[in-house]
Design brief:
79% helix; mainly alpha
Length: 394
């Protein structure tokens, strides 16, 4: 069908009925970002060091290294919709486990399952959208999906803080009521998607590990892969460290400091929407350079500011600046290897493994130097993105 063709009203209504459950899945995809807020509360409850607490977000993103390519192979066998349903089921289990026990090893298991479910979901949900939307509207639809995902990310610290301080009954769960609320939403997501008929075309052949890894021998693809790792590392690192900076420098309780994560997600969401329009009229290198400059300024401010306003401004800058880094790097990688898009896609998703490396390094640095050490690790990632800016192809 011609991408410019006009759909009958019945077809548009049918597409809308499919679109809503899929967007609910994007909301569930955002559950992974609760790990930053949850790790801070677990650290407080169990009296953990920064390096011990940062193991939680590291575990979540470790599984992207393992499951991204196998998920592509699984989609070839059972289809995209069933693969998304499996990812939602794994996510649901990860949310139920902490409701009954909040021990250290229990939380490690829960966050591992959350990471596995999210790795499978991120690899399979975006291709599923292509079965519902005309090609000329796919990019904007995926952008809207990221916006819906960001809503879940933003709400996580708000709900956790409310549950930790509310006078309403939370059945003794406190901040862990967050898991109950998101588990209920996840059940609705599973039911809605399972009941939605989606016609899928035959999937392409999935790439193997070696086919993906060989691409790292190309210098620019390697630069892109490392850029994705830095982007995700900065994202997870900011999510995890922002409240700790406020608690360390301003002596505020976690329930108040947790709002810092919300500031980051608000501006990351706004940046995602604005970038959708700016990238149509502005060269990628210039836009990318401005974004990285904002993050560089934010790192300096996070390193020296001792006022709540200054820290909030820094978080707004890093959220706004980091919001479109992934999309630019991902598109640059596809342009550089147009004949191997499947392999490049799998490799870039594997780059989300940066969400494992950065929090671990930041945890050890924070134990040794305070939160300034954690900021220094993120600043190293921003410095690499400055270098990458100079290599972006016109």
């Amino acid at each position: 069908m011609d991408s410019t063709a006009t759909y009958p009203i019945s077809d548009r209504r049918s597409t809308l009925m499919q679109f809503v459950p899929v967007m609910l899945c994007f909301f569930a995809m955002g559950f992974v970002d609760l790990v930053g807020t949850a790790s801070n509360y677990v650290q407080k409850d169990l009296h953990l060091t920064d390096s011990q607490a940062n193991l939680f977000p590291s575990l979540v993103f470790f599984w992207f290294l393992i499951f991204s390519v196998p998920t592509g192979m699984l989609m070839n066998r059972i289809g995209r919709k069933k693969t998304v349903l499996i990812s939602l089921a794994i996510t649901l289990v990860s949310l139920i486990v902490p409701i009954f026990n909040d021990g250290y090893y229990t939380m490690l298991v829960a966050f591992s399952l959350l990471g596995i479910g999210n790795a499978v979901m991120q690899t399979s949900l975006n291709p599923l959208v292509s079965n519902l939307i005309r090609p000329d509207r796919l990019a904007s639809t995926l952008t809207f999906g990221q916006f819906v995902k960001a809503i879940a990310s933003f709400l996580a610290p708000v709900i956790a803080s409310w549950a930790a301080t509310t006078y309403l009954p939370t059945f003794g769960l406190g901040w862990r009521a967050l898991f109950v609320i998101y588990a209920v939403v996840c059940v609705f997501s599973v039911g809605a998607l399972a009941a939605t008929p989606i016609t899928e075309e035959k999937s392409d052949r999935a790439s193997g590990f070696m086919e993906c890894l060989r691409l790292l021998g190309r210098p620019f693809i390697l630069l892109c892969f490392l850029g994705i790792m830095c982007h995700v590392g900065i994202d997870v690192g900011t999510n995890t460290t922002a409240p700790k900076i406020i608690m360390e420098r301003l002596s505020l309780p976690l329930e108040e400091a947790a709002f810092a994560t919300g500031i980051y997600f608000i501006f990351r969401t706004a940046g995602c929407f604005l970038g959708t329009f700016l990238l149509r009229v502005m060269p990628a290198r210039i836009f990318f350079g401005i974004s990285v400059a904002m993050m560089l300024a934010a790192m300096v401010m996070l390193g020296v500011c001792h006022t709540l306003t200054g820290i909030y401004v820094a978080l707004a800058l890093v959220g706004f600046g980091n919001s479109n880094i992934f999309s630019v790097i991902f598109s640059q990688a596809l342009i550089a290897a147009p004949q191997e898009k499947n392999e490049v896609s799998g490799l870039m998703i594997m780059g989300l493994f940066g969400g494992t490396i950065f929090p671990l390094a930041m945890g050890f640095a924070a134990d040794a130097m305070g939160q300034a050490g954690a900021v220094a690790v993120m600043a190293a990632g921003v410095a690499y993105l400055v270098f990458y800016t100079l290599r972006i192809k016109k």
